[in-house]
Design a protein that fits this description.
The chain is an alpha+beta fold. It is built from twelve helices and 13 strands. The protein is elongated and about 145 Å long.
């Protein structure tokens, strides 16, 4: 190799080596810087100045958010619980219980749809009592038979179920949980209300849940149990009130209850300006019946008289009671005297046509009544005055030969009942 060429080759080698070393160092530096940048992207500085992996931090934030939500859910539940329990021990009406249960469910699950059904023990059916989120123009009355669809299955199986439970039941048991009546329902979670002797009192269904708290199925079951307790308590209180307010022999209302109720009706009539009529009657020659056929037959006559009354009076508005002994009273709220008199005549005729029998099943002959009709305010502005006017008319009927009804003579206003506004059918306007 010529000398000048050798010199040129040696001169070009070292710069190349130096350039290569510089490039390698630069590459190592840039790689480390890139890794530091990537690491910084995947980490975050906490308040204490320490570095935490970003994914770990995000996971911890999700857990924290879930725990905070669950804490909020349970806090709301336990804040509402005391008021609900107080209502259960008070005088909450049966029709108000589904609405209160719906409020609890909405607070806990924030569903797009919530349904509360109550059971009819006579038909083994569920009837929709309270709802949220139903499609427009949904039927006002919805009936589902026990065992029909998801809702009926929960009522029959008496166990809480979610979507996984429904799918498992259909796959394992071959059960069809589709029902035509449920096409507009979102049934994601459903629990039965189990009452006394494991009787299904109703069900609660939620769909389109926004919140999914831990143990959601157990939580809905707890709300359903509260509903069952409230329904049972209301039924027991109603039975106790009925026993307290009814006559033990005839099962009509007793005198104590009727006096209170009549006083309330007169007060309402005075405020809203409509008439209230009463019909007071007793059975003719009842003492003779007792003396001739015995007191057991006399009791039978009183019971049969009560049956005639229940069949004859208007169940939704008129109230019948045993006033004492063989004396009875019927109240006609909103009825003027003439219409009340015609209603009283129907009772008299029905009683006269009824066949009364003794303990051996032998006819004891006809039983008749004598009575008087009086009307607020023309015959009395207060309860004692009104009852006194009806009693006086009853005494006149007795004096006139019995088996008749006499209208009381107005004492306070002439033609007063004609001046009061009365709607069609004789009820308050």
């Amino acid at each position: 190799m010529p000398a000048d060429l050798h010199i040129f080759a040696g001169a070009s080698f070292w710069p190349a080596v130096i350039i290569g070393l510089v490039a390698l160092a630069l590459g190592l530096f840039l790689g480390r810087a890139s890794r530091r940048t990537e690491a910084s992207r995947r980490s975050i500085t906490t308040d204490s100045g320490t570095y935490v992996d970003l994914e770990v931090y995000r996971d911890s934030q999700k857990v924290k958010a879930r725990l905070e939500q669950e804490n909020h859910v349970f806090t709301e539940f336990f804040l509402m619980l005391p008021d609900f329990i107080k209502e259960m021990g008070g005088h909450i009406e049966r029709e108000d219980i589904p609405r209160r249960l719906l409020e609890l469910v909405e607070k806990i699950f924030l569903p797009s749809q919530a349904l509360v059904f109550l059971a009819d023990k006579n038909t083994d059916s569920l009837f929709l009592s309270a709802s949220k989120g139903l499609p427009p123009n949904s039927p006002t009355r919805t009936e589902i038979r026990f065992g029909e669809g998801k809702l009926g299955w929960v009522a029959q199986a008496q166990t809480a179920m979610d979507q996984e439970d429904f799918v498992r039941e259909m796959r394992s048991g071959g059960t069809s949980l589709d029902a035509p009546a449920e096409f507009r329902f979102k049934v994601d979670l459903c629990a039965p209300m189990l009452g006394n002797r494991s009787r299904t009192e109703g069900i609660i269904s939620v769909g389109g849940l926004t919140r999914h708290p831990k143990y959601e199925k157990r939580l809905l079951t707890m709300i359903a149990d509260l509903g069952a307790i409230a329904l049972l308590n209301r039924r027991l209180m109603s039975e106790a009130e009925y026993r307290a307010n009814s006559d033990g022999l005839t099962e009509l209302f007793n005198k104590r209850y009727l006096k209170t109720w009549l006083g309330e009706q007169i007060h309402k009539a005075e405020v809203d300006r409509y008439p209230v009529s009463i019909f007071v009657f007793d059975l003719d020659h009842f003492k003779r019946c007792n003396d001739t056929h015995g007191h057991l037959t006399g009791d039978r006559v009183l019971k049969e008289t009560a049956k005639v009354l229940r069949k004859t009076v208007h169940k939704n508005t008129d109230v019948a009671a045993r006033w004492g002994g063989e004396e009875f009273m019927v109240v006609f709220p909103g009825e003027p005297k003439e219409k009340a008199f015609r209603a009283a005549e129907r009772i008299r005729l029905a009683l006269a046509a009824h066949v009364f029998e003794d303990e051996d099943g032998q006819s004891i002959g006809p039983i008749t009544l004598s009575g008087g009709v009086a009307t607020f305010p023309e015959d009395g502005r207060h309860q004692p005055q009104l009852i006194g006017a009806a009693d006086a008319a009853l005494y006149q009927a007795k004096q006139a030969g019995r088996n008749r009804i006499i209208k009381a003579e107005p004492k306070f206003l002439s033609n007063a009942s004609e001046d009061l506004p009365v709607a069609e059918g004789g009820r308050p306007a």
